[in-house]
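cron nightly-structures :: item 1 of 1
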Amino acid sequence: MTGSTAPRRLVLASNNAGKLAELQALFAPLGVELVTQGSLGIPEAPEPHRTFVENALAKARHAAAASGLPALADDAGLCVAAFGGRPGVDTAHYCTQFGYPKSDANNVRALLEQMRDVEDRRAAMVSTLVAVRHADDPEPLVASGRVEGEITRAPVGDGGFGFDPVMFLPAFGCTFAQLPSDVKNANSHRGRAARAMLALMRERWWPDA
C-alpha cells in the first residue's frame, strides 16, 4: 500500500463518541478521517474473546469487510491488580454483573462498591489498537498503550469518560477526569497506543504522511 493509492479514510470499529473524539485528534497529523461504523450502517461485531488484541482484531476485520475500507479498532479496559486483571475485556459491561444497567456512572459505582474494603488500589488502563487494510489483511498493525495508577475512593473530576473519574495518576497528582483533554490525549493509554499506531502507519502504509 503506497501513499499515492492508500485511502486516508478509516472506519472506526466503534460508536463510542469519546473514543472517536480522542482518536480523531490523535490521528489528525496523518490527514486521516475517522468515520464510525454506525454512520455507515455497520452493526457492532461480537466480542467473544478474552484478550484485548483478539477482540480488537475481530472488530477491525468486521468493519473492513462491511465497509470495503481500511479499519481501525480499539479494545480497552481497566485491569485491577487486586482482581487479577479484571474487569479487563468486560470493562464496558462491568456493572451489569452486579445488577446495574450499563452506563459509565454505574460502572464506577459498582467498582467502588467492590473495592470498598480493598487496600491494594493499583490498576492500569490498557488500550490495544488494531488496523487492517482489508478484511483479510495477513499483517494487521497492532499497538498497545498502558497507564498505571490507583483507584480512588470516590469520583473526582468532570472530564473524560468511563473510569476516568476514579483513575488517579500519581505522576500528575490527579485523576484522568481532571486533566485537560490535550494533556490526557498525550498521556493516556489510548494516546500511547495511538502514537505507536501512527508510527506503524507511517512506516508501512503511508510513508509520505
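cron nightly-structures :: done
The chain has one domain: 9-204.
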